[in-house]
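Thread: Reverse transcriptase Ty1/copia-type domain-containing protein, structure

OP (GT): Posting the sequence first so everyone is looking at the same thing. Length is 192 residues per the record. Can we get the structure tokens written out before standup tomorrow? I want them in the notebook alongside the other entries.
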Amino acid sequence: MSQKAYVQKVLPAWGESPANASNVLDDEAFDHYVSVVGMLNWLAVKTRPDIRFAVTGLQHRLANPTFDDLHAMQHVIEYLRHQPDIGIVLGSTDELRFHAYIDASHADWEDSKSTEGSIWYLAGSPVMWTTKKQTITANSTTVAEWCALDQPARDAMWLCKIARSFMLPEQRPIEIYTDNINSPLLLAKKGR
């Protein structure tokens, strides 16, 4: 499932970012940025989890974008120009099990907030994904990763209800993978 036709249709409309000696956008460049980021978001939310992180960063700059942001947007457009047909392959395995991968980048925003992302799979296919700026200021990578586990844990409970409504076999436990060794250790310690 891909949106190759959509990507190829709108690529010419995205065009090149206007050049300017200053880093302040005029009204035309601002409107261009807002419009293209909206179209990129449509792709990122529907069938392109591969661009979700980059688009989230562009969205956070919607109120006051600069030419650096336009340049970053052009990188996403160039990626799509060379990879228009990436999409979601449904049912790549027969195993009807949910599992998730999560990650966090510690203090990667100017205000020292972290970014978290998660992607849920069912039968080997991505079914839900998100990237967002954390609302708290984590004092370490471990804390950022631990906080990133919160929403996927809530999602797991919701997905169990969805699975029951489709009469899928009950799945216990639902696996959530993280790349931070300290997060699972802290969670295990909390449970004692």
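GT: Both are above now. Quick notes for whoever picks this up: The longest helix spans residues 27-46. The chain has two domains: 22-82, 98-188.
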